[in-house]
Amino acid sequence: MEEYTYIEILIEDKSGGILVKQIMDQYVMDKQNITYRIHSFKGIGKIPPKAKKMSQVKSQRLLTDLPMYLKGMSLSLENMPGKKAIFVILDSDDEDCAILKKRLVLMYQELGIKVQVFFCIAIEEMEAWLLGDSEAIFEAYPMAKRQLLQKYAQDSVTGTWECLADIVYKGGLQSLKKNSSSYYEIGMFKCECAQNIGRFMNIRKNASPSFNFFLSKLDSFCGIDV
Fold it and tell me: How far apart are CA 69 and CA 58, in angstroms?
């Protein structure tokens, strides 16, 4: 009998939550022993300077609330049977990935929690994971601009969501900005791309190194031999 596996996933925004749900639904499709839950936040926030002196007031910003969530989740998961882990997925944006990862690990160590935590950082934004599956993009958006997609260097710091907008949105990024009265409409565009492209993604055929890092950590924790 396979060991029961439970995964909590923390993600910085709604579009990321939509995409990871698509990924996880595909991942667990043939695995009866894995249960997961996704928590989407409303932005990235900042790592508190003193993790142990965390605020109890939720800001709905991932990094700001992270010590509180990790501590609380660890306490609730400790006595559950089977394997348990927390995956924290976030964008690197314009931060150095290695430095950000080091700060996250130090915060985790300062908390002294028992449950295993994996930090998975999308370079530069999670739209990079969508851009890593060109077949899914053309399934979702048959009129997508193939030449622009071919010019995109995987996981490059080049304005990732803007690059995706140029590829899939009619008239490109400038038209999207012109048609958007606020960042809310841009957020809706990101959510639509996550939904539309995510449902066609093949999680075993993605060119994004940061996506494959996430998948490798998931496989390793779940004991999946690919």
Answer: 9
Cβ atoms of 95 and 63 within 8 Å: the answer is no
Assess whether pLDDT exceeds 90 at residue 14: yes
Looking up tokens 């907008």 gives 165
Q: How many CB atoms lie within 10 A of CB 61?
A: 15
Dihedral angle computed from the Cα positions of residues 136, 138, 141 and 146, in that order, rounded to the nearest 10 degrees? 130
Q: Are 161 and 190 in contact (CB under 8 A)?
A: yes
Half-sphere exposure (Cβ direction) of 45: Cα atoms closer than 13 Å:
19
Q: What are the tens digits of pLDDT across the range 47-104? A: 888 766 666 667 899 999 999 999 999 999 988 889 999 999 999 988 899 999 999 9
Q: What is the CA angle 69-75-76, rounded to 5?
A: 90
* CA distance linking residue 138 with residue 141, whole number of Å: 5
CA angle 112, 116, 118 (to 5 degrees): 110
Q: In the β-sheet with 83-91, what is the strand arrangement from edge to edge?
A: 34-40, 5-11, 83-91, 116-122
- Please state the pTM of the whole predicted model: 0.94
pLDDT digits (tens, 9 = 90+) for 127-185: 999 999 999 999 999 999 999 999 999 999 999 999 999 999 999 999 999 999 998 99
Number of Cβ within 10 Å of residue 149's Cβ equals 17
